[in-house]
Amino acid sequence: KYCQKPVDKYIEYDPVIILINAILCKAQAYRHILFNTKINIHGKLCIFCLLCEAYLRWLQLQDSSQNTDPDDLIRYAKEWDFYRMFGIASLEQTSFLVGIFITLWWMRPEMLKTKSDFILLLKALLLSSYGKLLLIPAVIWEHDYTPLCLAFIKVFVLISNSQAIRVTLNLKRMLPWLAIIFGLILENGVVCLFQKMGWDV
């Protein structure tokens, strides 16, 4: 019933092909991963993505990039700026997800009736944010086009989130994008709040 076909064709596919189709944002691949596999890495993936984002922000801070002495690696690991960036990234991610849930619940309350519906959608959104892992290679192989790469990564993650919402709640394209736009508005509101408080974001 989830795949809307007699049989899920991805049952017979190699995991690499499934991953490639998921990267291409194919709805059937998302349905297979969400409903016909037992993946329990949502929390770990979320933490790792937040660490990648915090590292990127921490690296962009002027204080962290001034001294490149290898002896200072231990001091860098203890820097509170990194933990602050992790906290800010966590709050932004939370506000983004809350914005999506509020919009979907307001527009279609029947879709999110039970706790299991909320949990399934949350897992789908966390899994579909795997594109944030590309932040690390973008920083490691730094070049003149790094800001453009980061923008493409952001767009890719948003497209993946949209597909995850579509597949999980069996919706058309418009409502997931509306929810994502509201989530971005809420996330940017949190960023503006931090900037008014005088924090580097």
Tags for this entry?
201 residues; mainly alpha
Describe the structure.
Keywords: Endoplasmic reticulum, Lipid metabolism, Lipid transport, Membrane, Transmembrane, Transmembrane helix, Transport. It is a multi-pass membrane protein. The chain crosses the membrane at residues 82-106, 118-139, 177-197. The structure is a single chain. The chain has one domain. Helix content is 70%, strand content 0%. It is built from ten helices and no strands. It has helices at residues 15-23, 27-35, 42-60, 62-65, 73-77, 80-107, 115-127, 135-140, 146-169, 174-196. The model has no long low-confidence stretch (mean pLDDT 81).
The computed structural class is: mainly alpha
Number of extended strands: 0
Biggest beta sheet summary: none
Strand content: under 5%
Give the ordered list of helices and strands. HHHHHHHHHH
Q: Shape, please? A: globular
Overall pLDDT metric: 81
Q: What's the total helix number?
A: 10
Distance between the termini: 44 Å
Task: Estimate nothing, just give the exact number of structural domains.
Answer: 1
Residue stretches low in confidence (pLDDT < 50, at least 5 long) are: none
Kindly provide the radius of gyration, computed on alpha-carbon positions and rounded to a whole number of angstroms.
Answer: 19 Å
Percent helix range? 55-70%
